[in-house]
Specification:
This protein is an alpha+beta fold and 854 residues long. The protein is 45% helix and 16% strand.
């Protein structure tokens, strides 16, 4: 099988442009949001501010991210505007961000404690209300109508007060929310019951149990929802908690330290345990300072080990459970745990630049980026509460003026008992023949007659209240963010950083995965296998005249050169030129020269041509080292025999003055998990391709090991051509993911529908990618796609449930089934269903963890 480089046509116009002046991002902690309507109101207020380009609000974590023109938005003024409009806010700017985050977490804990207190009071009131029905005449006080009036009054004044106050304020500010609906329902039921109590001749029913049970169910649902949301955010909180608070600064003059022992006891008298040190906040450490870390302590900042040897637990950052051995020269990351030995390290990255800080920032940003599928829910949420209030009014008008006249039988009822789970004004309220709807109550006895006739006004009012209460904007608002919250948390625990809901949706649509070869499918640690000098003159140096008859004759002598005949001069020349490059090829050549003890020749005026090679002035002569294509551009003839001699290898040609001096062969090795990862991706229905700037023969060797066909290999592609290759696939209708780790991969990562960058690669590749893999493992590509698909499926399930619940629940509450089946939802039952819908959405998101257990 012959692998030939594919020609990538010029389709530059299809390549995505790079925004050279990115907008400024400002993040806020926003309180006071109760449902999707609130989140939409916050977004609306943010968008009205001058200079704001876009705003995204996450209801689940109560965070807003604003994209604005640089230097045009005052974050504090914007936070004050939100606060003045009923949404207490604080920007995440300033030097004390960790303290602000801690204060926000503590505020949320206090809110949950206060909510639990209110729920406890509400449950006590529900129990007392239920006992009045269970015991009946055995407890005259508990069955007294005034006792139930007192319970309803307490329910509104104590546990229900925050809901009613917030609902009224939101309505006044033209931003009604879930609390507005609940407040209208509870207050209306209480008011109607008071009218029935004070004017018994009206023949109305007192249903003081409704506001008590309604508020109790709502508070129960909100408490369960808050707890579930905290569980969903637990991974992020654990990640934030990784950031150390303190660091131990030591004197950099530590040459006398003796740390030869691999593990030292805690009571050791070694100087590493008793140096002169100063304890300072970790965010005050500067690059270059020396820090002491004892066993059991967290690494305070990113750095490298200078003294000592230890093992480091990196599980929270990478998902790798086994501790990693670290010794002088090795790098360590902030937040990881020193397990065994005492070490001294030098800080290389501090503050927001550390790995854990960047992970936190990535996960937080991911949780505020919405999936496009959420747009419909957001559009509905903006008008949802107004729509529900309109439907409630129409329900009242229909049943009062028409429904009760068309179906007069709905006004008849039969008693089904006095238990707390009875029908009508009791806990649930579903039955036949509009049961339990007309409880004519005496002042002293809260008993039910066997047969009664209900007022059309009261029936219409109950149905209207049920519509208000059963509608659930929360489920719409929580559908996407809770799934993203759980999914991104699982990813963070496993070292998979997915940048947002929009990425998840694109992951779900993928059909093609394109891998870079060098450093991605292969280890990137090239080794020299061949030295093929064209000239055998040992006296040859770059200062002498090179006397050859013609270039083609010189090149054709390769057949007479033994691969074992190593010309150290050629390696010296190549190493001198490659010293100006950071490419893996350059590293391999320099390492070989170092291992042979060769002195590097003087070189200057380095020039790198990405995808081709590097040139430099070596002892006054311009020398080129690169691939065959570059040699041709420099007018250097390369014999065809050279390609055959270096089959399946990467060839580096060295030339000067238009003369080919020699060629060096290098070979890379496949990653251990590369083949398994490719097979898993194929098993998921994805097409796997390889894209490389290497020669067709070198690409063919790697492709053969991976069972890739010629059609799935793009070889000899320059860096700028990689983006065009991806654009061509997209033009053919493919949804493409690109996996890469180098600077050369950045354009392709940006062009792809989903860019997947290895964290061990360059910062440019990591910044460009939409998914960042913290571990150096290709199987994480598989896991990230599986996680993305599973999370997006949860989003779709949640949205289906949220829309389905409201689509079915509101008509049932409005009495759709009443004429034919007699099924009627009381306000308390509607409240219970509403609470259940919100909890079910969050719980369904939490089920995502079942498929990704360690």
């Amino acid at each position: 099988m012959q692998f030939l480089p594919k020609i990538i046509p010029e389709i530059q116009a299809e390549i995505l442009p790079v925004n050279e002046s990115p907008p400024e991002l400002v993040t806020f902690d926003v309180g006071g949001m109760k449902c999707a309507g609130c989140a939409k109101a916050v977004e609306r207020q943010l968008m009205q501010y001058s200079g704001v380009i876009s705003a995204c609000v996450n209801l689940a974590v109560e965070v807003a991210t604003v994209e604005c023109q640089p230097g045009t938005v005052d974050a504090e003024a914007l936070a004050k505007k939100l606060t003045d409009n009923g949404f207490p806010s604080q920007s995440r700017l300033g030097e004390h961000q960790q303290e602000a985050e801690a204060a926000t977490i503590e505020r949320r804990r206090q809110e949950i404690r206060q909510q639990i207190k209110q729920l406890t009071i509400a449950l006590i009131l529900i129990i007392l209300s239920g006992l009045g029905h269970v015991l009946g005449t055995k407890a005259p006080i508990l069955s007294n109508i005034w006792f139930h009036w007192g319970l309803a009054t307490l329910a509104l004044l104590v546990p229900g007060r925050p809901i009613i106050v917030d609902g009224c304020r939101s309505l006044w500010r033209n931003a009604p929310n879930m609390n507005t609906l609940v407040a209208l329902g509870a207050v209306t039921a209480y008011t109607a019951s008071n009218a029935a109590l004070l004017f018994p001749r009206m023949g109305w029913e007192c249903f003081f149990d409704e506001p008590v049970m309604l508020l109790g169910f709502i508070l129960l649902g909100k408490t369960l929802e808050q707890q579930a949301r905290r569980r969903a955010a637990s991974a992020l909180q654990a990640l934030i908690a990784l950031q150390p608070a303190k660091a131990r600064l030591v004197d950099f003059k530590l040459s006398s330290l003796d740390l030869r022992s691999e593990e030292l006891p805690l009571n050791s008298t070694s100087k590493v345990y008793d140096p002169q040190y100063i304890e300072i906040p970790a965010d005050r450490v500067r690059v270059g300072e020396w820090l002491q870390v004892l066993p059991g302590e967290k690494i305070p900042v990113d750095g490298e080990i200078c003294e000592g040897k230890t093992t480091i637990d990196e599980s929270m950052l990478t998902g790798e459970s086994m501790p990693v051995l670290k010794q002088p020269g090795d790098t360590v990351a902030a937040g990881t745990i020193n397990k065994s030995g005492a070490v001294v390290m030098r800080a290389t990255r501090t503050g927001k630049e550390t790995t854990v800080a960047q992970m936190v920032a990535l996960v937080q940003a991911a949780q505020t980026r919405k999936a496009p599928i959420q747009n419909l829910a957001d559009t509905v949420a903006g008008y949802f509460v107004y729509g529900v209030m309109g439907i409630s009014l129409l329900t009242f008008l229909f049943w009062y003026f028409a429904g009760t006249h068309i179906w007069p039988s709905v006004l008849l009822g039969h008693d089904m008992g006095h238990g707390a789970s009875g029908i009508g004004h009791r806990a649930m309220g579903i039955g036949n023949g509009a049961l339990g709807m007309g409880n004519h109550l005496s002042v002293t006895d809260y008993q039910l007659p066997i047969i009664h006739y209900q007022s059309p006004l009261l029936l219409s009012l109950k149905l209207a209240i049920a519509v208000l209460v059963i509608a659930c904007p929360c489920a719409l608002g929580l559908a996407t963010p809770t799934a993203i919250l759980v999914g991104s948390g699982i990813g963070a625990e496993r070292g998979l950083l997915i940048r947002g809901g929009d990425v998840l949706e694109r992951v779900h649509q993928l059909d093609t995965v394109v891998f870079d070869k060098t450093g991605t499918l292969t280890t990137g640690n090239l080794t020299l296998t061949d030295y093929l000098p064209i000239f055998q003159n040992s006296e040859l140096d770059l200062n002498s005249d090179i006397n050859v008859g013609n270039k083609q004759d010189a090149c054709s002598t390769i057949d007479g050169v033994s691969a074992s005949a190593v010309d150290s001069k050629l390696l010296q020349i190549a190493a001198a030129v490659e010293r100006g490059s950071c490419h893996p090829i350059a590293a391999a050549i320099l390492l070989e020269a170092q291992q042979q003890g060769l002195l590097l020749l003087a070189a200057e005026d380095f020039c790198t041509e990405p995808g081709f090679g590097v040139s430099a002035l070596v002892e006054g002569r311009r020398v080129f080292a690169g691939n065959a294509e570059w040699m041709k551009e420099q007018g250097v003839a390369v014999a065809t025999e050279l390609s055959g001699s270096l089959q399946d290898k990467t060839a580096v040609y060295v030339a000067s003055g238009g003369i080919l001096l020699g060629v060096i062969g290098l070979k890379d090795t496949l990653r251990p998990d590369a083949k398994a990862a490719v097979e898993r991706l194929r098993g998921m229905g994805l097409r796997v391709m390889m894209l490389t700037g290497d020669t067709a023969s070198a690409a063919a060797a790697t492709a053969q090991q991976l069972d890739l066909t010629a059609a799935d290999v793009l070889a000899g592609v320059r860096p700028e051509g990689k983006a065009r290759a991806i654009a061509l696939l997209q033009a053919q209708g493919c949804k493409v993911a690109v996996v890469g780790d180098g600077i050369n991969d950045a354009p392709a990562l940006a062009q792809a529908d989903v860019g997947i960058g290895l964290h061990c690669g360059t910062d440019v590749a990591v910044e460009t990618a939409q998914i960042v893999l913290m571990r150096n493992a290709l199987m994480d590509v598989v896991e990230s796609i599986e996680l993305g698909r599973a999370t997006f499926n949860k989003i779709r399930q949640n949205l289906f449930w949220a829309f389905g619940y409201n689509t079915l629940g509101i008509p049932v509450a409005a009495g759709l089934l009443l004429p034919a089946t007699g099924i009627l939802l009381s306000p308390a039952a509607a409240g219970a269903f509403m609470a259940f819908s919100s909890v079910s959405v969050v719980t369904n998101s939490l089920f995502l963890r079942r498929g990704f257990r360690a």
